[in-house]
Structures are given as structure tokens and as C-alpha cells.
Amino acid sequence: MKIRHSIATVSVVVAGLFAAAATAQEAATVAFLMPDQASTRYEEHDFPGFKAAMEELCPDCEIVYQNANADASLQQQQINSVIAQGAKIIVLDPVDSSAAAGLVQIAHSQDVKIIAYDRPIPDVPADYYVSFDNKGIGQAIAQSLVDHLKAEGVPEGAGVLQINGSPTDAAAGLIRDGIDAALDGSEYKTLAEYDTPDWAPSKAQEWAAGQINRFGGEITGIVAANDGTAGGAIAALKAAGADPLPPVTGNDATIAALQLIISGDQYNTISKPSEIVARAAAEVTTTFLKGETPEAKTTLYDTPSELFVPAVVTRENIKAEIFDKGIHTPEEICTGDYAEGCRELGILQ
């Protein structure tokens, strides 16, 4: 009888623990803090993707979304605010990767977990990191350009410009390292290089305009680290009357960039649907909320991580990578003057 009573008591206790854990998950507040509005991806893809995944995985969780608009001080205020609101998990894409070390420490002092998102936090380990492989992205876009220049018969020793991302973004540093790896091993030389403050397209355009005045026809290609800086470079080339435009790389597969690729103004971009990383962040979040430890696929900056492999997109494969896979529809991209290019590529009949 005593044994039965003990077993029953243990069963009740265990059941209570599981119920408490379930209640904690159901009642959990989760914050999704993004870094800037220079790119439209956060409002159009990242947050909607994360929200949709969380609604599926933890329908009773409350999601708080805030964007720091490239202001590191504002992001610290947002961290303090969501912690005060009871956030148990913060998915953080930092404005300033170095300053974010302090944000991790603030969160950990309140027993709040940090999932680094897209941009790593090198100086203090977060609880997890999810992203596409940023160094691989840089190497892929630059190598794609190098291969194109060779195929077009551009002679050895020809020059390219290199437009990097924000100097305060560790992901931009990884992309730069990948670009360097591809260019340094190629037959081509880097004429000049620029770190774009806050990834601002206007800053990239201003710098590119100066280099066009400086080097003129010596510029046989431009490696831009994302579609925003690519758009700035293309605008500078068009303003200077360049015809034809030298090939320009990009990254993010924004609608504007896909249209520029269809028109022939941009050479490549990277298809990395943000929803993939957003869902991974949601899965890690709910694993933590259950009191479990998410599996590390790899480690970066002493942080358990999962890094996804993206695809390079050019005119040659844009139909297969973007439209056949359902990432975008012709109705979204093939508007106005871009319809002719879409018909040429078989996207529109």
C-alpha cells in the first residue's frame, strides 16, 4: 500500500511538472528584435515567417516585434522593454554586433535566453545562432562574378570594386571574408573597397559614384554585399552613363533585385528565403520553452548554431530558383517594363 501510494504521489508530481512546463510555454512572451529598415526583408519576410511558425508551434505564445531602425541605443532600450514585459526568449538580430555582447549579458542576468539571428554576436556566446552561411554567401557571389568575367573573356588583371556591408555588423564581416577569399584567389584585382555604414544604399551609391569618376572604364565588375548596396552601385553607374553596365552582384533576392536581374542591370543575387531561418528560430525558441536543449548543427563564436546553404541566382536560373520553387509569382515580379524580360526568360508566356 505504501509503495502504491508512493508511485501515485510520484505520478502526480511528474504530471504536475509537465503541466507547469506546458503552462509556462502557453503563457510565454517571446520577443523578435530586428536591426534596421534599410532592407524591406524584416517586415516583409522575417517577422511574418517567424510569427507564422510560432502560431503553429506555440499558438498561445505572445510575440513582441520591434525594429531598432539602425540605432544601437534604441535596441538596448527595446531589450530592457521586452524583458520588463516578461519575455523569456529574445530572438535578436543586432544593430551592432560588438555592442550586442552587453545585450546578451543583460538578458542572461534576468534568466532570459538570446537566440542570435542572421548576424552573430562574436564577443559573448548567445544561447543559439541561426542564419544562412554568411561567409559562404560572400564567396558564392564573388566567385560567380569571377567565373562570369572569365567566361566573357575579361583579361587577367582587370579591376573590380568591392562594396561591403556595415562595419558594425559581424555578418557583414563574414560576407566580406568570403568575398576576399574568392577575389584574392582570382585573376582580377580589387581597385577599391568600402564598408557601407548601416548598409545604406545611398552611401553605397555616393561611394560608387566617386570610384566611377576615379577609375572609369577600368571597372569591369562590382561585388556588392547585398541588394541594397548593389542598387546604389547600379544607380551610380546609370547616372554616370555607363553602357553597358559592368556586372554587379547582390544578396537577399529582394523584389527590386530580381527585377534588375531580369532587365540585365544586376548580375546575381542570393536566394535565401528569410522564412527558412525564421522557422528555425521559432523551432529553437519552442525547444527552449519546453526546457530542452536544441541540437547544434555546428558551432560559431562558441555558440551552438545552424547555418543554411543559399543559392546563387542569375538570369540563367532565376525561373527555376525563384518562380518554379514558388518563392515569388510572376504577378509580383513581372510588372510594367519587366514583363518583356520575363517573357524572354520563359517566366511569362
Explain what this protein looks like in three dimensions:
There is one protein chain. 48% of the residues lie in helices and 18% in strands. It has 349 residues and is of the alpha/beta class. The protein has two domains: 2-133 and 274-308, Response regulator (Rossmann fold, 3-Layer(aba) Sandwich); 134-272 and 311-344, Rossmann fold, CATH 3.40.50.2300. The protein has a seven-stranded mixed β-sheet with strand order 2-1-3-4-5-11-10, sandwiched between helices. A three-stranded parallel β-sheet has the order 7-6-8, sandwiched between helices. A two-stranded antiparallel ribbon has the order 9-12. A hairpin with a 2-residue loop joins strand 10 (298-300) and strand 11. Helix 2 (41-57) runs parallel beside helix 10 (274-289), helix 3 (72-84) runs parallel beside helix 4 (100-109) and helix 7 (201-215) crosses helix 8 (227-239). The longest helix is centred in the N-terminal third of the chain and has 25 residues, at 2-26. It is globular. The chain starts with a helix and ends in a 5-residue tail after the last helix.
- State the domain count: 2
Whole-Å distance between the termini? 79 Å
Radius of gyration: 23 Å
Rough outline: globular
Q: Give the CATH H-level superfamily of the largest domain.
A: Response regulator
Total strands: the figure is 12
Subcellular location: Periplasm
Keywords: Signal
Main location: periplasm
Protein name: ABC transporter substrate-binding protein
